[in-house]
């Protein structure tokens, strides 16, 4: 058997794969009809008792839809068949798990739900990451024809496209940033990570200075060109783990993962200079600047709205202070000062 | 590019998407969905699935995608 992982670097890029999954913002969301419908069709067409849409997180497999296995919502990756499925481009087909040394002693085979046969197809993103699997499971040994496996591949492509279409709806198409709603979801997740694991992060809110003047003088097409250029520049400067959101009009948010207040201040300065250097082709060329509010996460931030409001206060201070500068939110500054050296 | 739709009875209605800039990512998704749907029908036929089950499968899949597509388009219209 040819190991496709050698010639397919994305199959080995676990960090990139998990980030690709995170882009969908789907983990731990409630059950939803579109995914249940696809799993239901797989169950009916393949005539199996269990059909699952499984997403493979870094430490677990999580079920977006699970038909025929009770209320199970996740398992560890150690016992997960789908963890094996995502390591290749082609479907994983196991006619009898008891005869397969990889699965013969698996607790899902030796105990409930007593899996005997399994066929799983990777759910692949348009940029080539296998984020999960669509699988048909039976409690008796099964032989599937190539045509039946082709049917499962077709359903898997449709399930992957459902995921992708949701992601499209979360992107602001002018700037390529997340929409306010998508960004807020990410901020809430950062707050949850801080509460659970004390993982630091920082929030920047930036507003383009005198942007109304650009629209009034050169028209909305020129305004959009400025927004596009700012979005492209910021996206290029961010790490894969950071999130850029368009909060509305000419206001953006940047969530910096694993960042301290000092990191955030440095980043804000880098972004400020990068925006200042943008020149939009025009006669004369259009130039813009931006003001930044900075806030590091702390116990006082219970919701995304609270945290954004605090970063906004710092942004207004930057505006009042003369624009094209950044200001730190008061509570972040106090937290920083009160820390032992 | 035509900016009107003509029903079978000759009624002409304006294209509801006139002036709406469709992002490339949405175009790509629509294209992939069409291909995936054609592939599903071919594979169900090859697997000997009944015509009734094929019709049910296509209806369910199209309706699911339509719901999601409408949500995406509403988001885009709010941005425009």
From TrEMBL, chain A:
<dbReference type="InterPro" id="IPR029016">
    <property type="entry name" value="GAF-like_dom_sf"/>
</dbReference>
<feature type="domain" description="GGDEF">
    <location>
        <begin position="199"/>
        <end position="331"/>
    </location>
</feature>
<dbReference type="InterPro" id="IPR003018">
    <property type="entry name" value="GAF"/>
</dbReference>
<protein>
    <recommendedName>
        <fullName>diguanylate cyclase</fullName>
        <ecNumber>2.7.7.65</ecNumber>
    </recommendedName>
</protein>
<dbReference type="Pfam" id="PF00990">
    <property type="entry name" value="GGDEF"/>
</dbReference>
<dbReference type="Pfam" id="PF01590">
    <property type="entry name" value="GAF"/>
</dbReference>
<dbReference type="InterPro" id="IPR000160">
    <property type="entry name" value="GGDEF_dom"/>
</dbReference>
<dbReference type="InterPro" id="IPR043128">
    <property type="entry name" value="Rev_trsase/Diguanyl_cyclase"/>
</dbReference>
<dbReference type="InterPro" id="IPR029787">
    <property type="entry name" value="Nucleotide_cyclase"/>
</dbReference>
<dbReference type="InterPro" id="IPR050469">
    <property type="entry name" value="Diguanylate_Cyclase"/>
</dbReference>
<dbReference type="GO" id="GO:0052621">
    <property type="term" value="F:diguanylate cyclase activity"/>
</dbReference>
Automatic annotation (TrEMBL), chain B:
<protein>
    <submittedName>
        <fullName>Uncharacterized protein</fullName>
    </submittedName>
</protein>
């Amino acid at each position: 058997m040819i190991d496709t992982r050698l010639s397919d670097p994305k199959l080995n890029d676990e960090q990139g794969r998990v980030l690709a999954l995170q882009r969908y913002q789907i983990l731990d969301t409630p059950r939803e009809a579109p995914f249940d419908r696809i799993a239901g069709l797989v169950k009916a067409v393949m005539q199996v008792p269990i059909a699952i849409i499984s997403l493979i997180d870094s430490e677990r497999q999580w079920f977006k839809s699970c038909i025929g296995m009770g209320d199970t919502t996740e398992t560890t990756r150690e016992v997960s068949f789908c963890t094996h499925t995502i390591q290749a481009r082609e479907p994983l087909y196991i006619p009898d798990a008891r005869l397969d040394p990889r699965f013969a002693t698996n607790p899902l085979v030796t105990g409930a739900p007593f899996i005997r046969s399994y066929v799983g197809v990777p759910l692949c993103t348009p940029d080539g990451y296998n984020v999960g699997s669509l699988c048909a499971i039976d409690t008796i040994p099964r032989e599937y024809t190539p045509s039946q496996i082709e049917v499962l591949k077709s359903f898997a492509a449709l399930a992957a496209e459902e995921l992708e279409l949701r992601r499209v709806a979360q992107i602001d198409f002018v700037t390529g940033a997340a929409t306010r709603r998508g960004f807020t979801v990410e901020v809430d997740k950062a707050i949850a990570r801080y509460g659970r694991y004390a993982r630091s992060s920082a929030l920047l809110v930036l507003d383009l200075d005198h942007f109304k003047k650009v629209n009034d003088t050169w028209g909305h097409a020129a305004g959009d060109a400025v927004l596009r250029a700012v979005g492209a520049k910021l996206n290029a400067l961010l790490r894969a783990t950071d999130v850029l959101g368009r909060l509305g009009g000419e206001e953006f948010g940047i969530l910096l993962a694993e960042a301290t207040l000092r990191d955030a201040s440095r980043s804000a300065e880098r972004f400020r200079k990068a925006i200042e250097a943008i020149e939009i082709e025009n006669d004369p060329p259009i130039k813009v600047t931006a003001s930044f509010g900075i806030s590091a996460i702390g116990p006082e931030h219970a919701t995304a709205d609270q945290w954004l409001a605090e970063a906004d206060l710092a942004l207004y201070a930057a505006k009042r202070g003369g624009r094209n500068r950044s200001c730190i939110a008061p509570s972040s500054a106090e937290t920083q000062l009160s820390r032992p050296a | 590019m035509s900016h009107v739709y003509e029903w079978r009875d000759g009624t002409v209605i304006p294209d509801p998407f006139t002036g709406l800039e469709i992002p490339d990512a949405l175009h790509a998704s629509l294209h992939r969905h069409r291909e995936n749907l054609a592939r599903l029908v071919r594979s169900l036929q090859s697997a000997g699935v009944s015509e009734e089950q094929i019709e049910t499968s296509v209806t369910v899949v199209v309706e699911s995608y339509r719901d999601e597509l409408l949500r995406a388009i509403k988001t885009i219209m709010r941005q425009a």
